[in-house]
Amino acid sequence: MLDTAEDCKAAVDSKYTRLDALVIGAGIAGIYQLYQLRELDLDVMCVDSAPDVGGTWYWNRYPGARLDSDGPLYQYIFSEELYKDWSWSERFPGQEEIEKWTHYVVDKLDLRKDMQFKTTVERAFFDELTKRWIVVTTEGEIFDTLYLITCCGMLSAPMTDVFHGQETFKGNIFHTARWPQDGVELEGKRVGVIGIGATGIQVIQTIADKVEKLKVFVRTPQYILPMKNPKYDEEDVAAYKSRFDEIQKVIPHTFAGVDYDLPFRWHDCTPEQRAQLLEDIYQDGSLKMWLGSFAEMYFDKDVSEEVSEFIRGKMRERLKDPKLIEMLVPSDYGFGIRRVPLETNYLETYHRPNVEAVSVKDNPIVEVVPEGIKLADGTVHELDIIVMATGFDAGSGALTRMDIRGREGRSLTDDWSRDIRTTMGLMIHGYPNLFTTAVPLAPSAALCNMTTCLQQQTEWIADCIHYLEDNGLSYIEPDENTESAWVEHHDETANANLISKTESWYLGANVPGKPRRVLSYTGGVGTYRKKCSEVAEAGYPGFTKR
Predict the structure, then answer these.
(1) Strand ranges for 390-541 from DSSP E
(2) 28-39 helix and 95-108 helix, angle to the nearest 10 degrees
(3) CA–CA separation, 188 vs 204, rounded Å?
(4) Average pLDDT of each block of 10 consecutive residues along the chain (546 residues)?
(5) Which stretches does DSSP call E strand in 406-459?
(6) Do strands 380-382 and 372-375 pair parallel, antiparallel, or not at all (unpaired)?
(7) Chain mean position to CA 268
């Protein structure tokens, strides 16, 4: 066992690299974090297990993968030139275009020289003698770094081994988050899709007309919103680029990090006004119904029920078939309390003669057998391909699947198996100089336009490191009381809304044994930013520094 920096250096000197900072992950957060730390003249490197940049947008290349945030908002806003030199082709760009955008940014900022791909971090430990992090890869490479920054993504630890017998299946099983780069031949195949969350919906609506037979295994129905995705012409592109100053000023301070907020108050409107507002917002064809309508639907059960019934009515109109309505229209939880997907003719897909919805709510999948999927009643659905849209160990999974050890050998995997705690989602007590993005107890864990929140978090981290460097310090760690105060504030905020009352991946309910806690800070992006800024402006009170 290599337990100190000297042990590591002596063991594999040719693979030993000493740095000021190491960034894990070359997605949205990691790209910008690398840029900022390089601007501080630090010796920094960014590593990623993928063969190239993109993070989520490298791995999630399944059929139909695309944004559900408006493209003009899903960009870095620290540089007007960087923003305006890229043009989206449509309102909600697809995976291939988003991946190309990440390449554009990396090349424009000349970041590749400080990036290393096909590099998977296996473990990292804090050396208490040197007060530095020792990071070990699966290939035995050693990084010795003062600052360790994790930019691993909130949805990057897929739930792949879900069902007994998967290894016995005679066909092919693909998880959407590990889709082959060369694609999958689906024509003429009998395909089963497990999962109808946002990803499953995109897959289902995209492949239905390509396969011989599509069976969708339905457990938890989802509220959905139709996506309006117009192509952009030169005039459209010029129009959104002209809004750069407005976007830069507005989106960091709204509830979800987009260019609209929750402006309406239910009880200030007449029933007629509410009905008209709901209809108008629904017709926008975006997530505005979820993140830009009535805030009361998150807190007031009566308001939640009225808004939910409005959406149910829209879904019933499109489905018509009573059996499909019963299976696919939610009834036991409210709209917006779980993740809300955008879709294109998703419900109409179930009217195709080659598509079958199979309810597994009361007749669950018990195992995968060589022929296909077996249900509790003994029914076997014979398939050639199984698509697992089974989600992720969100927020915490990317780090708990590494072996991260802090002071006195404490294990983050063990700590988070008992209680998921962070300080503002940016640092963790017991883990000095470990900075985190897209982990629990921050909006970036779920409820945010990701580029907005990840920019804010990486800027806070860069500013904190700059503060340490300017003041001749090299060590920072949140005190236990400081972390407890943030956890208490987070929980108080979360427990006041209906999200905390509904089992979903937002609470980690999809991962067996995972401690229950609302993963995302629900107080809003603007409020979170303000609280983080106050800590920095006050000189990081409640943090040990030396």
Answers:
(1) 403-405, 434-436, 476-478
(2) 10
(3) 15
(4) 53 79 98 98 98 97 97 98 98 98 98 98 98 97 98 96 97 97 96 98 98 98 98 98 98 97 94 97 97 96 98 96 97 96 98 98 98 98 98 97 97 98 98 98 95 98 98 97 98 97 94 96 97 98 98
(5) 434-436
(6) antiparallel
(7) 34
Place of tokens 């139709």: 226
- Do residues 14 and 79 lie in contact, with contact meaning Cβ atoms separated by under 8 Å? no
- Closest to 429 measured CA to CA, from 478, 394, 389, 465: 478
Q: Positive or negative CA dihedral for 65, 68, 71, 73?
A: negative
Q: Phi first, then psi: what are they for 504, rounded to 5°?
A: -165, 180
Question: Residue 320's pLDDT is what?
Answer: 86
| Domain boundary assignment for the chain | 5-157+393-474
Q: What pLDDT score was predicted for residue 1?
A: 46
**How many whole angstroms separate alpha carbon 350 and alpha carbon 122?**
43
Sign, Cα dihedral of 539, 542, 543, 546: positive
Tokens of 420: 């998921």
Look up residue 36 and give its two tokens: 């900022």
Buried b (16+ CB within 10 A) or exposed e, 102-113: beebbeebebee
Q: Which residues pair with 218 in a beta bridge?
A: 359
Question: What pTM did the predictor assign?
Answer: 0.96
Q: How many helices and strands, by DSSP H and E, does the chain display?
A: 18, 20
List CB contacts of 33: < 8 A, sequence separation 6 or more: 23, 46, 149, 151, 437, 458, 461, 462
Q: End-to-end CA distance of the chain, in Å?
A: 29
The tokens for 340 are 């809300």
Spell out the alpha helix ranges (H) of 350-410.
Answer: 397-400
Which CATH code for domain 5-157+393-474? 3.50.50.60
On whether the CB atoms of residues 132 and 334 are closer than 8 A, the answer is: no
